[in-house]
Specification:
The complex is a heterodimer. By secondary structure, chain A is an alpha+beta fold. Chain A has two domains: about 200 residues, PmbA/TldD superfamily (PmbA/TldD fold, 2-Layer Sandwich), CATH 3.30.2290.10; about 220 residues, no CATH class. Chain A contains ten helices and 20 strands. In chain A, strands 1, 2, 3, 4, 5, 6 and 7 form a seven-stranded mixed sheet that branches. Chain B is of the alpha+beta class. Chain B is about 20% helix and about 40% strand. In chain B, helix 3 packs parallel to helix 4. Chain B is built from nine helices and 24 strands. Chains A and B meet through strand 1, strand 2, strand 3, helix 2 and helix 3 of A and strand 2, strand 3, helix 2, helix 3 and strand 17 of B. Strand 3 of chain A pairs parallel with strand 2 of chain B.
């Protein structure tokens, strides 16, 4: 794939005309998917695809486009030249863009990670026998993912990575569920079977009779997977500088009214894990670590070069949408073995579901509890709870009601596949809250 | 490309082979505060090769469109199907892919290329100027999205279906700010105005009039009272009913979901297989149809991606659940009647059960009669927040704009209106249903489901509705 990208890049860049600036972005994957229901194969298949994005700038005007690539150089050069011509016809018709960013970074990088992945036709045989007769539903995804970026200033980046993930739910006959994700780049059959066996152990806890709890405010522990759902909300009306400037951010109060979260809350963009590339669509390379919230204070936001130009601030080379690419919340002091004792009596939430801003500007999020969630009394799990709706503000549960943070960060891989297989992960600990509002 | 010729050249040992070629051009233009933010076009094309071997379907999506590429994809799909057939959830026969021959084209008056990029950009710039009705409007956005899709499906059983779509979505929004209060108003919810139509949707006089109203209502909300808290009557506009139908009826009735396919992602359903024909889903006023032939509705089509011919069907009749949202595979697995809704988001995904046009049929009440019947309640319009549990029971939805209803009259504007309820009791509390004069058509390009994930377009239409004794509340 890199050879194809390089050849197209060299050819197209050589054909640019005076005054034209061009950025090219490559995205591709060779993926195997196996959808599982009741520990059987529901759907199975492969997808090979590659796309080439164009960012053409001419005379203070900009237009973008993308095309599917076939993998055949001759055919793809025809498509690429056709797209460039279409963009040339369009760009002169558009209004001037005062905030456009001419790709001028000549930085280069190269990362090509190879793993050990099972062959596509071996996947049913390696996955399913170990599941036995448990009701397991989930999705296997594996294969190689590619990202590339090049521009007319000579910048060039390439990132390729092998990975697999089995994201699954285990379900009891009474419809209680446990969620888990086994992911990596080096397949290890014994490790997979041990991981699955551990999940089955957790499922046993769900066989206790469920407890129905009433709406109200409860002492609550949210495990790392649930915290990752909350943190992902900061990509949508959160840490984006543009969103704050345009009054579409839950963190506007922190900027404009000097409101602070708990000093226990430390949040950053941290690429040191290496899950995702540091370069963005303009070929700019973000700092390895950008501290966003330090001891509860908003210290930085994600700033794209476009936003920097519009508002006269410094870019930290965020993506154009200024979403989180490598979110990381710092660990605290609470030992995981002490969580139940520290919770005392209250609610233990393993996972959350379907979060949305119920009042973005007020920082209020609603969503559901899901999977292994328990009622705890005097530091002991008493029963799984029936799922509850919550509706509470980050200024409350990450503010005055944040009591403790666990001392271990967990890696929560993004197994999303809407726009192709995601590479990122949210790294975060669990949180103990003095109060959390359950509403329905 | 000559898909039939490629199909006839495929040499594999399979009980059925299907090819679905999709080419889709998605144009998107966004202007913020009079300046261009995005002018882009995404062009995607590829072929989904599906085979049936030993009762197991397998697929291979490839962007290589020549004979050799498709042949290679078919061979790999056969290998996968053979390997998986030992562990099949269900052993299918060829009846899962009916023979289909036909075509479909979206209705439109003005073709997509009738507006040049410059003309459309200029209209969007004007729209943002019109949205800024005062200095308190701090951000304005105008966006236009056009999608042109060609889908050609051929199969070894003789199926040959050619469908062409032109889809247009637009949205205009204003954010107003004063002191510590910020309010946003859109054109009926983000991209709710999504249709199978042409560029006639961008009639300048109509667009600019709507923008003035949006700007004015955003400013009006700055000084509005907070929505009251309490249990009272709720009148929902059709643009919010779109979301209400989608989340608390549509997803709950997807048969693949009821069969458990989705339990690791979006969830299960409170509806069970033996509820069909028995469950009183809502009040007797409730009639829900799957209707793929509503003029200009966003998810109209003639055949689904498995080759099943689309027909209008009642899913809920007089409040009684009678039919599910399931394509041929789900109908075979469940033994239930379904509809032609086995759809894929593009060439690179396999079909699953999706909503298409799912509508609440109109009743007999006028808007005036509905409002006059309410002693104390809230009218809400334009969705801004949505969340529902994995069984499609406990939901909480929020709207952009509300009006108090007091003693049969619309009175004060209220901000941050929200409500929460549980699906069946909520629909059973449907007290009055607007007539055809109150009936409006909406859609969204963004319905997410499935593993691997797929986002697909759906359409929903509804009259004005009155629900009794709903838990209503305001903002933070």
């Amino acid at each position: 794939m890199e050879k194809l990208f390089k050849q197209i890049n060299q050819t197209i860049m050589a054909e640019l005309q005076t005054g034209e600036h061009l950025g090219l972005n490559f995205g591709g994957e060779e993926s195997t998917f196996t959808r599982i229901n009741a520990a059987k194969v529901r759907q199975i298949g492969n997808v090979d695809e590659a796309d080439l994005g164009f960012n053409l700038i001419l005379n203070s005007r900009r237009t973008t486009g993308s095309i599917s690539l076939s993998g055949d150089l001759d055919e793809d050069l025809i498509r690429a030249r056709g797209e460039l011509e279409r963009l040339r016809v369009e760009v002169v018709q558009l209004p001037e863009d005062p905030y456009l960013v001419i790709p001028d970074s000549n930085a280069t990088s190269h990362s090509d990670k190879h793993g050990k992945l099972p062959e596509a036709d071996a996947i049913p045989e390696i996955l399913l026998p170990a599941m036995g007769d448990v009701d397991l539903t989930g999705i296997w995804a594996s294969g190689r993912v590619y990202q590339g970026s090049a521009n007319s200033a000579g910048g060039y980046h390439w990132f390729a990575s092998d990975s697999f993930s089995l994201d699954y739910s285990l379900i009891t006959p009474s419809e209680k569920m446990v969620k888990a994700t086994y992911a990596g780049s080096e397949w290890d059959q014994a490790a997979y079977e041990a991981f699955l066996a551990d999940s089955l152990t957790k499922l046993e806890l769900m066989s206790l009779p469920p407890k129905k709890i009433e709406p109200g405010d409860y002492r609550t522990f949210i495990a790392s997977a649930g915290v990752s759902d909350i943190l992902s909300m900061f990509s949508w009306g959160g840490v984006s500088e543009a969103a704050i400037r345009q009054s579409e951010s839950c963190l506007g109060k922190m900027r404009n009214e000097n409101v602070k979260l708990s000093a226990l809350f430390n949040f950053s963009e941290d690429f040191s894990t290496g899950f995702t590339p540091r370069f963005n669509g303009n070929g700019e390379v973000a700092p390895e670590i950008t501290c966003l919230i330090d001891n509860g204070e908003l210290t930085n936001t994600l700033v794209s070069t476009r936003t920097a130009k519009e508002y006269g601030v410094e870019s930290n080379f965020a993506s154009e949408g200024e979403g989180l690419r490598a979110p990381s919340m710092a660990a605290g002091s609470l030992k995981e073995s002490d969580v139940l004792e520290a919770l005392g009596t209250g609610v233990y939430l393993s996972n959350l579901h379907y979060l949305n801003w119920s009042d973005m500007i007020g920082g209020r999020i609603t969503g559901m509890t899901r999977y292994a969630c328990f009622w705890v009394e005097d530091g002991k799990i008493v029963a799984p709870i029936e799922n509850m709706r919550f509706d509470d503000s980050v200024y409350s549960f990450l503010g005055e009601n944040l009591e403790l943070v666990t001392e271990k960060q967990h890696v929560n891989p993004d197994v999303g596949t809407y726009d192709g297989r995601e590479l990122s992960a949210i790294v975060c600990p669990g949180i103990l809250l003095k109060s959390f509002s359950l509403t329905l | 490309m000559d898909l039939q010729a490629i199909l006839s050249g495929i040499d594999v040992r399979a009980d059925w082979v299907g090819l679905r070629y999709v080419k889709e051009n998605t144009g998107f233009r966004l202007v913020r505060d009079g300046k261009p933010e995005a002018n882009t076009r995404e062009s995607k094309q590829g072929v989904m090769v599906e085979v049936l071997v030993n009762g197991q379907f397998a697929y291979y999506g490839t962007s290589r469109l020549d004979k050799r590429g498709v042949q290679a994809a078919a061979e790999k799909a056969v290998t996968l199907a053979t390997a998986a057939s030992k562990y099949s959830l269900h052993s299918f026969g060829t009846d899962a892919r009916p023979v289909a021959k036909g075509s479909y084209s979206s209705p439109f008056q003005t073709a997509a290329d009738a507006f040049s990029p410059g003309e459309l950009s200029n209209l969007l710039v004007k729209a943002t100027e019109e949205l800024k009705v005062s200095d308190k409007v701090v951000t304005t956005n105008a966006m236009a999205r056009t999608v042109e899709t060609e889908s050609h499906f051929v199969a070894s059983n003789g199926s040959d279906v050619d469908q062409k779509y032109l889809m247009v979505s637009a949205d205009y929004s204003a954010i107003a700010h004063d002191g510590s209060v910020t309010q946003k108003r859109t054109d009926g919810g983000l991209l709710a105005k999504s249709y199978q139509a042409g560029m006639e949707v961008f009639n300048e006089a109509d667009v600019l009039a709507r923008c003035r109203n949006i700007g004015n209502e955003a400013v009006e909300l700055l000084t509005a009272e907070e929505c009251p808290t309490g249990t009272m009557d709720l009148v929902l506009a059709p643009d919010q009913m779109m979301l209400q139908i989608h989340e608390s009826v549509g997803h709950a009735l997807e048969i693949d979901r009821i069969l458990g396919d989705e339990r690791n992602y979006a969830g299960w359903s409170f509806v069970r297989l033996d509820d069909f024909g028995k469950l009183q889903y809502g009040s007797s006023l409730m009639n829900i149809t799957f209707d793929p032939y509503v003029e200009n509705q966003f998810a109209s089509y003639a055949y689904d991606d498995g080759g099943l011919k689309a027909e209008k069907e009642f899913l809920i009749k007089d409040g009684l659940l009678i039919r599910g949202l399931g394509g041929k595979e789900s109908q075979i697995r469940s033994g239930l009647d379904g509809v032609a809704n086995f759809r894929a988001s593009s060439w690179n995904r396999a079909p699953i059960d999706r909503m298409a046009n799912l509508n609440l049929e109109p009743g007999t009440s006028t808007e005036a009669e509905i409002i006059a019947s309410v002693e104390k309640g809230v009218f809400m319009t334009s969705n801004r927040s949505w969340s529902i549990d994995d069984y499609r029971n406990k939901f909480q939805f929020g709207c952009e704009y509300g009006k108090l209803i007091e003693n049969g009259k619309l009175t004060k504007t209220v901000k941050n209106p929200n409500y929460r309820a549980i699906s069946n009791p909520f629909w059973r509390s449907l007290k009055m249903l607007g007539n055809r004069d109150t009936f409006e058509i909406y859609g969204t390009p963004f319905c997410g489901k499935g593993e691997p994930n797929q986002v697909i377009r759906v359409g929903h239409a509804s009259p004005l509705c009155l629900f009794g004794d709903v838990e209503i509340f305001g903002g933070a």
